[in-house]
Amino acid sequence: MSINKLLNLLTSLIIVITFCLSPSFASAQDNDSVPETSNPNVLFVEQKGESNNKVLWHLKVNEANSRLKDVVIKMELQGGHNISLAELNTLLNAKGVTVTQPDPEKKLFLLNIKSLDESLNVEFSSVIIDNQQSNYKLSLSADINQHVTASDIYFVKTQLSGNVQYKDVPDKVTPPALEVELIDKQHQTVVDHARVSADHLEYTFDQLNKFNIDNQLIEYEVRPKVTGSYKVDVKANDILLQYLSTKIEGDIRNESDKPLNIKIINKATGSIVDEVLVDGTQSHYKKDNLPLNDDQGNGIDYDIKIEDTEGFKATTSNFDIEITKDKAKDNHPQNSVETKQDDQPKSDVNAAEESEASAEPILQSTAEDKVNEISAEQEMKQVSSSSLKRSLVYAAPKEIPLLSTFSLANTNLLGFAPMNNVAGVTDDPYPTYKGQISNMAWDEKGLYRNRTPQPVEYNESFQWKQAQPTSTENEYAIDLKTQGRASVTQETVDIVLVVDNSASMGAIIGNGKTRWQSMKDDVFKFIDEVTQANTATNTKVRIDVVNFASIVRPERNPGFSGDPAIIKSKFYSSYLNNQDAGTFTQRGLISGSNKLNTSSASKKVMVVLTDGAPTLSYLGTRATGSESISSFSNYVKGDGTNFKLHGRSTYYADHDPYFVNLYTEITNNGQPTISQAKIIKNLRPDFDIFSIGLDTTVPNANATVSDMNNVLNNIASRPEYAFTTEDSASELSKTLSKISQSVSNSISNGVVTDPIGAMYDLNLGSDNILDKSDYTLTASNTDLLKSVTVNYDPNTKTLKMNGLNLGKGEWVNLNYKVKLRVTDDNFVENQWYPMNGTTTLKPSSASINLREYPVPEAKAKSPSYSFVFNKVDDDAKPLQGAVFELKDAGGNTLSRTSSSSGQVLFDNLKKGQYTLTEKSAPNGFIKDSKVYTVVIASNGEIRIDNVLYTDTNKFKIINKKLLGSIEVIKHKTGNENELLPGAKFELRNSAGDLIDTLTTGTDGKILFKALPLGSYTLKEIQAPSGYQLNGEPINITVKNDEKVTIKVANKSNSDILPNTGGTGTIFYTLLGMLIMVIAVWSRKKVSKS
User: Fold this and answer.
1) 909 in helix, strand or coil?
2) Whole-number Å distance between alpha carbons of 1003 and 821
3) Are 567 and 560 in contact (CB under 8 A)?
4) Superkingdom, according to UniProt (predicted)?
5) 870 and 808, same structural domain?
6) Is 419:778 a contact under the CB 8 Å cutoff?
7) Quick one: 872 and 984 in the same domain?
8) Is the pLDDT of residue 854 over 50?
9) Which residue has the higher pLDDT, 910 or 1025?
């Protein structure tokens, strides 16, 4: 190989390396339009989007202002569009250019320029003739001193949408967000990404090229990126994610007869996946809905773990469990048992047989009873199996009322769910039940049961009715929940569309159309959607339109109409672009309100659409605040171009800021507009007013985004009725769809009839009259409750809820309490009694069909004594993990551990005297050494140290925190005796919260005091003067109430080494290596010569 060839090879390699290292090497090519020209000063063409089925083109010739003579420019069209030769000549003849078309069958045009010594700059359009079934290209070429070309393409756009559905996901599992990739099927390249959250199960890819550069239809597919325990199936862009689950089960041999907490373990990680609590008599267990895979999609191998019980040993084999006596401890029996109280529901107790009254209550149990927890009588007296009888018997002394309750601190012993924690979601729930209520299954939970599955699904609604026990014996809280659906209301609706027709609506937006045309396209779809249920004989929805700018433009086809064609004709074909083209939003609001005032429809709606800030307003004459003007004159302020009032005047008006009532300054046109909206809303609270800002996420007319949002929010009648769009071309249709759902309620003025069950009494409080304290109403939005009333007829024992107005995702829940009358002569123990009669919903005043709710049932059990108290720290926060021992007069003990809510429950107790002691405190707290005397009276009263505790006087035991400290000593590197002042440190806890920031003093020390035990991170944030910052975080654990000392060293600035190196090392390294190889090769060749 010659030296020249080698040098050529070297040059090529350098070029390749340079190209590879160039940032442009990895960038993808985009098919979107980019004008191409060989000389823009001579010839240039650019597409400006599509409008009204025409492609707009911008042509530039001779931008350099050279002298052109006898020049012919060829213009050729590709794709399904054409140009009117006559219109093009009309446009260009005045500029000295003649256009000819040699062959009418071919889309080739010749632009003949006789003489031109200035630039030619024109805009024209081509007409789409193939219904957007191709891209549209325009090419230019000419010989002007050289061959010059220019071209551009308008790419037709499309969109792709789909839904995501999760199936078989357990209630306690939150579905993860899903990453969806959009793929070009031909090239298998990723075009776009979308992230779909579990609370918004739909996605849309907008602005996709419909055809490639060769006018071939692009095929797209979606590809979800799934991990974890889900199987994915994609059909027609809809994605189904099915939760993959497994189960474990095993047999139990439990000699201890005590409850077991089975922990289900992931073998690979040792983490606890789930827990199962079984009672002492259970011989088999099963756990469903365990995830099949972990978050990375790897299969989970499960194991179980059982903690040894005092005096017994636990062994497991293939998920089977054996609890046997621990022979090593058999000679030292303990008379106590420890169970962890974690707010678990109380046990279901079988029906009690009658017994003669005795002076003391007697608790007796059998192995056949289905008891979930060991009773205190069993634990303390350790009744032998020979003394067990067939049933649980309670013999009450005659002086104790049968309805006595024995609980403290209003503890929700049976797991009563809070009011807002009712079943269902704000979107359509899943799964649902369809069919006869009487055919539904029961979900039994001891003494009460609910129908399942819920909700019950009807055409108009989803309906729940579920009961949970309260802390009062035999009392139940009922949640009656009603959710609307997306369907056309049975009531009449009048809608006024107040649309901005100002000059700014002429802006070309992302889809190539003017904002006015794009808005009309989406509003027309909205009109079609909300009027679709109208018929020739029955008009449910009518619409009228206000076109406003500086003026309200004359009406077209005045009055409300239910005919979509007539409604659409009310819109002007274009926006105003003259002296009347400002934005007088206040005038538009007044006109829209006047139209709605004439409406007799059941529902009245105004939708205001504007793309900018108000630039005109009426002069205020009376006000209590800048946004609370109560009256106006007909004098107009503002010049139509500026949100703010300023000093510039015209010959007919001034636009200065002004004062109302001498002290309220009005500085912009938004303040009167907001005030006008408030006047309308106060006068007509029955108006539903929506506001939509079109592309208002950038400043406009000297108004900030915050200014415009403030106007939009105050126009809307509810906060959630105000919308803004960043890109109205893609977002407006979705916003209007949301409004359509709100307008089209499936439940309109609905009525719920809810009779109380024959064996129950409604809790009406001490006055025995229904008022708002006797029930609770909640809703997905509190505004839904404004029209709702609740009444009670004591003669028929019937609740009625009136005025329900619900659309898709909107719900109202009524919560009230009933009590089973166990003293009724007709009461039969252990018999199920329905809590209500047939409960129905009448969806609207026009409805014929009544929609039935499921009805819960309950039965009674014998009362029991419970002692519950709260374990808290000195800030009254609940403490988990404190162990307490309760000892009776005979020396028998019970042990309980405080739950995550700080509650400690001792239940199934006989009356008598006990001592309560804390055996161990939670980690990081000081144990309470006091011994408390607890006395339970026969009437259920509980006194602790002779103080009566009730729901209003709750007993609690307080632990004080163990506190430690951290001392930081700052010194010079290599010399611990040279201490450094001026170093600033911050200390954060394990949650990342800042605890304190301190600076070392002259002794080089700081001390962080009174720190709760736990993990901390120490970080230097400012170095001492003349020293380098040591910014490496230091992890510190405070384990007890002692001081932890940390020494931190700093290097002097004089120890800093100069920085070396630079950018581009890869390139120069490779280049140097190549030169060395050439040098060695050349030397060898010379030597051989």
Assistant:
1) strand
2) 76
3) no
4) Bacteria
5) no
6) yes
7) no
8) yes
9) 1025
Q: Is residue 1068 part of a domain?
A: no
Whether 1087 has a pLDDT exceeding 60, the answer reads: no
List the helix and strand counts (H, then E) for the chain: 10, 67
Domain-embedded: residue 420:
no
Other Cβ atoms within 10 Å of 697 Cβ, number:
13
| Boundary residue ending a domain (216, 243, 270) | 243
- Domain end point (choices 243, 268, 296): 243
Retrieve residue 991's tokens: 């949650």
**Residue predicted with more confidence, 164 or 939:** 164
Task: State whether 685 and 555 are in the same domain.
Answer: yes
pLDDT in tens, 194-210: 988 887 889 999 989 99
Tell me the pLDDT tens digit for each residue of 5-53.
555 566 555 554 544 444 333 333 345 668 999 999 999 999 999 999 9
Pair 79, 215 in one domain: no
CATH (domain of 191) = 2.60.40.1140
Q: CA-CA distance, 762 to 765, in Å (whole number)?
A: 9
Identify the residue whose tokens are 């699904």: 457
Report field, pTM of the whole predicted structure over 0.90? no
One-letter amino acid for residue 347 of the chain: S
Q: Structure tokens of 215?
A: 């006018």
Dihedral sign from CA coordinates of 988, 994, 1000, 1005:
negative
Q: Which residues of 879-889 are buried (b: 16+ CB within 10 A; e: fewer)?
A: bbbbbbbbbbe
DSSP one-letter string for 699-768: -BTTB-HHHHHHHHHHHSSSGGGEEE-S-HHHHHHHHHHHHHHHHSBSEEEEEEEEEBPTTEEE--TTTT
Beta-carbon contacts of 402 under 8 Å, excluding residues fewer than 6 positions away, are 396, 822, 823, 863
Range of the structural domain that residue 119 is part of: 36-154
- Residue burial 432-470, b: 16+ Cβ < 10 Å; e: rest: ebeeebeebeeeebbbbbbbeebbbbbebbbbbbbbbbb
Alpha carbon 103 to chain centroid distance? 62
Any domain includes 138: yes
Mean pLDDT of 492-505: 94
| CA distance readout (Å), 741 to 243, 745, 802, 1047 | 30, 7, 22, 65
What pLDDT does 1082 receive?
65
Q: Among 267-281, 366-380, 473-487, which stretch is predicted with the lowest mean pLDDT?
A: 366-380
Average pLDDT estimate for 391-397? 33
CATH number of the domain where residue 931 is located: 2.60.40.10
Number of domains in the chain: 6
Residue 926 · residue 873 · CB < 8 Å: no
Q: Kindly state the tokens that stand for 68.
A: 């052109």
* Residue 427, in any domain of the structure: no
Mean pLDDT computed over every residue of the chain:
83
In single-letter form, the type of residue at position 600 comes to S
Same domain membership, residue 168 and residue 224: yes
Q: Same domain for 700 and 559?
A: yes
Same domain, residue pair 145 and 166? no
Token pair for residue 229? 């325990």
* Model confidence band, residue 391 (pLDDT cutoffs 50, 70, 90): very low
Whether 56 and 146 share a structural domain: yes
Per-residue pLDDT band for 409 (boundaries 50, 70, 90) equals very low
Type of residue numbered 368: E
Q: How confident is the model at residue 344 (pLDDT cuts 50, 70, 90)?
A: very low
Tokens linked to 168: 């078989």
Q: Does residue 289 contact residue 245 with C-beta atoms inside 8 Å?
A: yes
The CA distance from 73 to 88, in Å, is 14
Nearest to 178 by CA among 217, 130, 232: 232
Which regions of 490-553 does DSSP assign to beta strands (E)? 493-500, 541-548
Q: What pLDDT is attached to residue 874?
A: 85
Three-class secondary structure assignment of 322-359: EEEECHHHCCCCCCCCEEECCCCCCCCCCCCCCCCCCC
- CATH label of the domain that carries residue 600: 3.40.50.410
